[in-house]
Amino acid sequence: MRGVFLLLISLLLAVNSYAMDSPETVEINALAQYYEPVEFNHQLHVDVAGDCSVCHHHTTGTGTTDLYCSKCHSKFEELVTVSCADCHSADPFSAESIHRQSQQDLFHVDMNGLKGAYHQNCLGCHKEMDGPTGCQDCHTRNKAGDKLFHAGEFAPKAPEQAASH
Amino acid sequence: MSNVSRRKFLAGGLAGGAAVMLAPAKKALAAGSFTGFPDGMGVLVDLTRCVGCRSCEAACNKEQQLPAPELPFDDLSVFDQTFHHGTQKRRTTEDAYTVVNRYEPENLDKPVYRKIQCNHCNEPSCLTSCFVNAYTKTPEGAVIYNSKVCVGCRTCMVACPFHVPAYSYSKVLDPVVKKCIFCYETRVKHGKPPACVEICPAQALTFGKRKDLLKIAKMRIKKAPDKYQPEIYGESEVGGTSWLYISEAPFEQLGFDTTLQKEPILDNVKGFLGMVPMVLAIWPALFTGFHLLSTKHKDHGHDDSHVEEEEQ
After folding, report:
1. Is A4 a domain residue?
2. Chain A contacts of B72, Cβ < 8 Å?
3. Minimal Cα distance from B49: which residue of A?
4. Contact B71 A112 (CB under 8 A)
5. Which residues, at least 6 apart from A121, have a Cβ–Cβ distance to it below 8 Å?
6. How close B263 comes to chain A (CA, Å)?
7. Structural domain of residue A103, as residue ranges?
8. What is the ipTM of this complex?
9. A93 and chain B: CB distance < 8 Å anywhere?
10. Which residues of A touch B218 (CB under 8 A)?
């Protein structure tokens, strides 16, 4: 099993010319209000995922593996917009986005926001690959986050098991 | 002259009577027609996406300035809490307008987390049951209430088919009903999504116009028919709700009441209630008219008139 994995990695490194200009790490700070920034090891995920389209759909020039997407995006062309935030809005419920939902002639009316796209993609894969899945495995909460969750120094003083109804 | 007016009067009386007779049927037909405000907002809850992180509970607590919880919001042991001898999972309370529960459906290898809160019905039974008119369904879709006029009778708690309104039992003086108000005052009124939607990491909650969300939900089901149940919970339950659910597991295995009627709760009594003012307004006039007509040619001016009638 490990041998296959290593072989896969070496193969990937060999054909990794696509990822040559990709960043080593990406700092994700979309949840800065409650969490410390996440230092995303891009290179590690490139090695593990193998195919850029696993995360980048059809934008990196490697084609798409998703049959559904390939109906339109079958061309192997690299797009200018590659980063997640280029398509997935950080504010998916702005007036503009709500208006977009009502435009039935657009195809991607049900596009995830940035946070939703990250978590659905990351968590889904992390569960399959036994990666970290707990919130704080990736995101360290800051003080405001602790306050929001009533955790850490803001934890309830005398916790009781049974809540009243 | 008197004959004409009598004929006219009788015709009018018959028409009035017919109106009274027909009123219930007509009202009942009209009752189901309100399907919410055209641009009313809603939230689509995709239960296949929820990861059970309880962030929505934390955000609600902060936004609505609710009291501190008994356990931190990152404590997942609350999913094991049950009440009434294990028959009931956590419910919304005066201190928690939304609650996430964990379910383990039969044919699924992973748990399903379900967020509950007020579903903001198109035709809310809490509103129609409230005799002080404390509740309002706003054009934005929110069902809000005025706690200043609430007398704490708890009729809405009985009326709600989802058992959502909670009562401030902790308050000795002036206890009121408390529930999710769709973050109306602080957010939805200003075009912003509710706090729970905004914080949801997995976008299990999608905020939008209800009519668009229905289309989006149908699109998701159509795109992955093996993944989703074919129904949208809330599309037609009790006349439709602003909050809609789609799920991988059957709804009845996730604590949803799938036996609810498709018509608004109010429909059960609307026919009767619509008749009451008609009866009150028309019957006195009608029967006074009949009485006057039947006694028209009799002399009412004398004290001995009744004596004469008795003699006859």
Report:
1. no
2. 149-151, 154-156
3. A120
4. no
5. A55
6. 26
7. 10-154
8. 0.81
9. yes
10. none
Longest dimension (CA), chain A: 62
Count up the domains in chain A and report the number: 1
Residue B94: give the domain boundaries: 41-254
Q: CB–CB of A116 and B203 under 8 A?
A: yes
Assess A163–B contact: CB distance below 8 Å, yes or no: yes
Sequence-separated contacts (24+) of B98-104 with Cβ below 8 Å: B98/B56, B98/B57, B98/B60, B98/B180, B98/B196, B99/B57, B100/B50, B100/B52, B100/B54, B100/B56, B100/B57, B101/B255, B102/B52, B103/B249, B103/B253, B103/B254, B103/B255
Answer yes or no: do A113 and B203 touch at CB < 8 A: yes
> CB contact, 8 Å: A109 with chain B?
yes
Contact (CB<8Å) A110/B93? no
Is B21 part of a structural domain of the chain? no
CATH of the domain at B211: 3.30.70.20
A54 to A6, A10, A59, B23: CA distances (angstroms): 19, 19, 11, 62
Question: For every one of its 312 residues, what pLDDT tens digit does chain B have, with 9 covering 90 and above?
Answer: 445 565 665 565 555 555 545 444 444 444 445 677 888 999 999 999 999 999 999 999 999 999 999 999 999 999 999 999 888 999 999 999 999 999 999 989 999 999 999 999 999 999 999 999 999 999 999 999 998 999 889 999 999 999 999 999 888 888 889 999 999 999 999 999 999 999 999 999 999 999 999 999 999 999 999 999 999 999 999 999 999 999 999 999 999 999 999 999 988 888 888 888 888 889 899 999 999 999 887 765 555 555 555 555
> CB contact, 8 Å: A67 with chain B?
no
